[in-house]
Design a protein that fits this description.
The complex is a heterodimer of chains A (241) and B (422).
Chain A lengths: L11 E9 L28 E2 L1 H18 L10 H4 L1 E2 L20 E2 L2 H6 L8 E3 L2 E3 L9 E8 L6 E11 L6 E9 L7 H11 L14 E5 L7 H8 L8
Antiparallel strand pairs in A: 1-9, 1-10, 2-6, 3-4, 5-9, 6-9, 7-8
Helix pairs in contact in A: 1-4
Chain B lengths: L1 E9 L14 E2 L7 H16 L6 H4 L2 H7 L5 E2 L3 E2 L2 E2 L2 E2 L7 E4 L4 E4 L17 E3 L1 H9 L15 E3 L4 E5 L2 E5 L3 E9 L6 E12 L11 E8 L1 H13 L17 E5 L3 E2 L5 H17 L15 E7 L5 E3 L2 E3 L4 H8 L9 E6 L2 E4 L2 E2 L4 E2 L3 E4 L4 E6 L2 H14 L12 E3 L13
Parallel strand pairs in B: 2-14
Antiparallel strand pairs in B: 1-15, 1-16, 1-17, 3-15, 4-15, 5-6, 7-11, 8-9, 8-10, 11-12, 13-14, 18-26, 18-27, 19-20, 21-26, 22-25, 23-24
Classes of the chains: A alpha+beta (241), B alpha+beta (422).
Chain lengths: 241, 422
């Protein structure tokens, strides 16, 4: 029985701040109004931002790597067809109680899907865009030209001159946003996400060419208990195979 | 019933899809449907009570009363609000607010409400319902032209409007397209077939620091009004509306007003409408004798759809409200034989959606578009006036608790004639 006045569970919110050490290049496909071939993504007010979808996707990827390393079976994201594990068609490797979710009697959900969601189970974590704290007026448009070199001749390749829009380089721009943990978020999400954040050293495009390298100024101050670590460490044990 | 006014401020882009993407672009609607607000409030209550896995139809308490009972709370659509200097204009100062009737027309070359008396850019908007009725009564075709330049007129292209200090404003929101791509986990490059674009409602207007607000309402039984209002107000930044809410979209701040009695008195509007209609009928007398009876002996009223409606007659979908249907909707006990549908201006569309509780798509419904106008007349107004006020409060047709079928009786814009285009 639900009584509105007695609902006491709450959503936990945590601030995340990233400092971009180099220049950031998060492309906005389909944008117009810039001379660049790959313009940078902005919000309606013109602030630079790192989209919540990118933080979520990247953090999910890091958490998947860690959980897989600990021996857990992880469903294959981001392809929706491979993420839903039906119990009647399951090849027995997902047959563990940890993969069962109350109210979802026909499907198994890996540890990562229980945090970040899949086509059947809604996400239990909400990510906001990380928005640049600097006013857009103070940030001049910075266009970075690039050219591809022909490997045989060692000169510029034909038709391969391109322009990337980036944030101004080496000015330590801060990007701030929040993440929210819903009341039904599993407790092992905290250590896993914290470890995942510490694995992210760069975001956006052209990371291998030196763009988008960052450091975390503020990470969520999760309270992590020993029980949470123990829960994660059970990955290799009790497996059906 | 009590009415809780909502002011919804967009804090991040809102991806409220008109239809689920069959292609790679999800179109967005330009308002927040009541069904989306209802879903967000229900999801919040379920998350906070851990009630998702239990059967709430039997012993659901307040949740059952709000969403599953015979008289559930009505979540009306939230439409764009008027913003002046970054602040929302209070509802009390608005003389009119809502959906412009489809009978309104404007110049094809320079459409829109006039911002000043001799606006060089806009030739003004006027309504044609009463003139059409009179022209028909006198046996003439009605083919208006622009009162300013004599050129062609067309539909206004304005959906939402308001009137403040005798000035009319159209209310619009801006949209933009966000393109996203899925990344293949093994190759760290873009995943095949996961490139998509979302059309979103902007979180601020073009001028900086100018937020976007929407205005809606919830109608709820007296005993739950205060607790629902407190529930929403204390968690005013926890609600997420529309799609992709876990990845940065859909964040809003909802401010609520104190619940007030939702009862509506429509008698003044009906009287004003009838006065104008009869004056106009007399003016048309310069063209000779009418071919229809004079409207002096009857009382006229209009039903203006303020939201899309799902209408059914004899189990079949329809876009017309017949006399029989109106009797049923208004629950008029003594059948009024004199009730007559004089005119109907409506069009249709198809609508689906996503029900998070089911985890499935909603059925595709044939809807009657908002803005539709139905003109009725009767010789027994006493039977109707109170019932029409009740109908304006509750709405008509199916799924009224999700904001469908909201109506307004005798929208005041019908009293704006061609020579007084605004």
């Amino acid at each position: 029985m639900i009584v509105l006045t007695t609902l006491s569970r709450s959503i936990d919110s945590y601030t995340v701040t990233a400092v971009i050490d180099t220049a950031l290049c998060v492309g906005a496909g389909g944008s117009s109004g810039s001379l660049a071939d790959k313009p940078i993504v902005r919000n309606a007010e013109g602030n630079l931002l790192i989209p919540g979808s990118q933080i979520k996707g990247r953090l999910r990827h890091e958490c998947e790597k860690i959980a897989r390393g600990l021996g857990w079976k992880i469903s294959e994201s981001p392809s929706p067809g491979n993420m839903v594990i039906r119990r009647d068609k399951e090849p027995n490797i997902f047959g563990r109680s940890e993969y069962e979710v109350l109210g979802y009697n026909e499907t198994y959900h890996c540890l990562i899907s229980q945090i970040f969601g899949d086509p059947v189970l809604p996400s239990r974590v909400i990510f906001e865009d990380l928005i640049c704290t600097e006013e857009p007026e103070n940030l001049a448009e910075f266009i970075r030209p690039g050219v591809t070199i022909n490997r045989r001749r060692g000169t510029a390749e034909e038709k391969k001159l391109y322009f990337l829009e980036t944030s101004p380089p080496n000015v330590s721009l801060r990007f701030k946003g929040e993440i929210h943990l819903l009341p039904n978020c599993p407790s092992y999400a905290k250590p896993l996400m914290l470890a995942g954040f510490k694995h992210i050293h760069a975001l956006g495009g052209s990371k291998s060419a030196g763009l988008g390298w960052l450091s975390w100024e503020t990470l969520p101050n999760f309270e992590v208990t020993d029980a949470d670590w123990d829960c994660l460490a059970r990955g290799g044990k009790n497996a059906a195979n | 019933m009590q009415r809780i006014e909502l002011e919804i401020k967009a804090l991040s882009p809102l991806a409220i899809a008109r239809q689920k993407p069959g292609g790679s672009i999800g179109e967005a609607v330009d308002y927040i449907p009541g069904t989306v607000i209802r879903g967000a409030v229900a999801a919040q209550i379920l998350d906070l009570s851990n009630g998702r896995s239990t059967d709430l139809t039997k012993n659901g308490g307040d949740f059952q009363a709000l969403f599953l009972s015979e008289n559930p709370a009505i979540f009306q659509n939230a439409y764009p609000a008027l913003i002046v200097d970054g602040d929302i204009v209070s509802k009390d100062t608005l003389e009119e607010y809502g959906v412009l009737p489809t009978t309104a027309l404007s110049s094809k070359n320079k459409p829109g409400f006039k911002e000043e008396e001799d606006d060089p850019e806009k030739n003004g908007v006027f309504d044609t319902l009463i003139d059409r009725f009179c022209a028909e009564g006198y046996g003439y075709p009605y083919d208006p032209n622009c009162p300013k330049d004599g050129e062609r007129v067309d539909a206004t292209g304005i959906t939402f409007y308001c009137k403040v200090d005798d000035e009319y404003h159209s209310l619009k929101v801006n949209k933009r397209l966000l393109t996203r791509v899925g990344i293949n986990r093994r190759r760290a490059t873009s995943e095949e077939e996961i490139l998509y674009s979302l059309e979103v409602l902007n979180e601020s207007q073009e001028t900086k620091q100018n937020p976007v607000y929407y205005r809606g309402a919830i109608l709820v039984e007296e005993n739950l009004a205060e607790s629902l209002r407190n529930f929403i107000q204390t968690r005013n930044q926890n609600f997420r509306l529309g799609g992709s809410t876990s990845r940065g979209l859909g964040k809003v701040e909802i401010h609520t007003k104190n619940p007030v009695d939702a009862k509506i008195d429509v008698s003044d509007r009906i009287a004003k409408f009838n006065k104008k209609l009869k004056e106009r009928w007399d003016k048309w007398g310069v063209f000779g004798d009418p071919i229809k009876e004079s409207p002096t002996s009857r009382t006229y009223f209009t039903l203006d759809l303020q939201s899309d409606a799902i209408l059914t007659e004899n189990w079949r979908r329809t876009t017309i409200i017949s006399e029989k249907m109106l009797h049923q909707f208004a629950e008029v006990k003594d059948k009024d034989e004199s009730l007559r549908l004089e005119a109907a201006y409506s069009s249709y569309d198809f609508l689906s959606g996503w029900n998070a509780g089911w985890g499935l798509m909603k059925d595709v419904e044939l809807i009657t578009n908002k803005g539709a106008v139905y003109l009725f007349s009767t010789t027994q107004p006493g039977l109707w006036i109170e019932r029409l006020g009740e109908l304006e409060m509750r709405g008509l047709g199916d799924r009224t608790c999700e904001g469908f079928g909201q109506i307004q009786i005798c929208n005041e814009f019908h009293n704006v004639f061609r020579e007084e285009a605004v």
